[in-house]
């Protein structure tokens, strides 16, 4: 005999899966807490905002500086595209900054006269 599960049961299962997934992703991205991931935003000289992720290994400090890697994604991607590689670099002692280029991810679009349409419908 088949028993039907209530919608509340499936909602509880879905919420538990979401919580487990969030905790698992955080554990993987921070290498079990050995890597600090910072979300950076700053205003550029053009007046637009750019964003980046900064992966800092636990052994890097002002007194113990670590080598750095600055990365940028390819077209149609964002700063999270290669984050597993960046976590691996930071596990090995590198500080990694992954930048969202203008118009990608959380960075603002930088309009220039060459790409701003002068009229609509041409």
Please specify the SSE layout and strand pairing.
Blueprint: H1 7-29, E1 35-43, E2 49-57, E3 68-72, H2 83-91, E4 95-100
Parallel strand pairs: 3-4
Antiparallel strand pairs: 1-2, 2-4
Question: Quick one: overall form?
Answer: flat
Number of beta strands: 4
Strand order of the largest sheet: 1-2-4-3
Helix content: 25-40%
Computed structural class: alpha+beta
Low-confidence stretches: none
Count of separate DSSP helical elements: 2
Brief account:
This protein is α+β, with helices and mostly antiparallel strands and 122 residues long.
Explain what this protein looks like in three dimensions.
This protein is an alpha+beta fold and 122 residues long. 26% of the residues lie in helices and 24% in strands. A four-stranded mixed sheet has the order 1-2-4-3. β3, α2 and β4 (95-100) form a beta-alpha-beta unit. The longest helix is centred in the N-terminal third of the chain and has 23 residues, at 7-29. The chain is flat, with a radius of gyration of 21 Å.
Features:
4-stranded mixed β-sheet, 122 residues, 2 helices, 26% helix, alpha+beta, 24% strand, 4 strands
């Amino acid at each position: 005999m088949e028993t039907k599960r209530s919608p509340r049961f499936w909602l509880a299962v879905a919420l538990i899966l979401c919580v487990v997934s969030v905790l698992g992703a955080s554990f993987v991205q921070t290498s079990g807490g050995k890597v600090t991931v910072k979300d950076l935003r700053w205003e550029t000289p053009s007046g637009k905002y750019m964003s980046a992720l900064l992966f800092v290994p636990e052994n890097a400090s002002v007194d113990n500086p670590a080598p750095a890697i600055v990365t940028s994604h390819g077209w149609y991607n964002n700063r999270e595209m290669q984050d597993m590689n960046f976590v691996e670099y930071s596990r090995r002692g590198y500080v990694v900054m992954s930048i969202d280029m203008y118009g990608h991810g959380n960075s603002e679009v930088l309009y220039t006269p060459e790409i701003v349409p002068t009229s609509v419908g041409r």
